[in-house]
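Sequence only, no structure available. Ideas?
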Amino acid sequence: MNHKLPIKVTIALFLALSIAFPLVSQTGSEIVYVTGSGRLYHLDGCSRLRSSKIAVTLSDAVISGYGACSVCKPQAADAASFQRKGVDLYRLDLAALHSVTEADVRQMLRAEVVAHIDGDTVRVRIAEPPAALSVVETIRMIGVDTPETVHPRRAAERFGKEASDFTKERLYGKIVYLAFDWDLRDRYGRLLAYIFLHDPHTGSVVCHNAALIAEGFGHAYTRFPFHFMEEFRALEQGARNAQRGLWGA
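Reply:
I predicted one. Tokens follow.
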């Protein structure tokens, strides 16, 4: 008995199986979409995808613990299917942390602060930058806005010098660790990052972005969304209640 299927039937069967069981990507470079609070990744145009969709690679989504959406059925894969090559950017939004204090400095990009610009902006040197970055980058800290001191069209603002001095004292010449969020750069091309460092007094790892707000040197900058917006708002309220820095008499 001949068990071979006709060519047309074979092709139809292959297409049906491809839809039911999508092939696992070999590279993970395909773009899928996630949201800030969801735990699934989607294809573009999925009915479950909200307007705040964030484009990521399939490998990043899978390695970060996102599952495939059951509605749009993107390619499904296990984290072991992908191997990271070179240095990766540690994204705190994809890590789905509840607090900036949960960030793992061991996964962050190491850099040296080589220039201080103002309270929320510094310049760093990265010894071995990944492909998306340069050796020297200007960092605009995510989620914090300190009073202006170097704006080309504005005079120095109240408490700007104090905020600038705080950042210079804490960061200039120091080894720091960089973590990232939804957007890699702002409209001026500056790298958007959270800056972490070891506190010389306690030895613990601290986020300088959060410290600026907690100590009253800046506002929580909520014009653009970021993963720890509510936490940073709470830090600002705490500084206001305690009348620290900007909120003092």
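Residues 7-20 form the longest helix (14 residues).
Hope that gets you unstuck.
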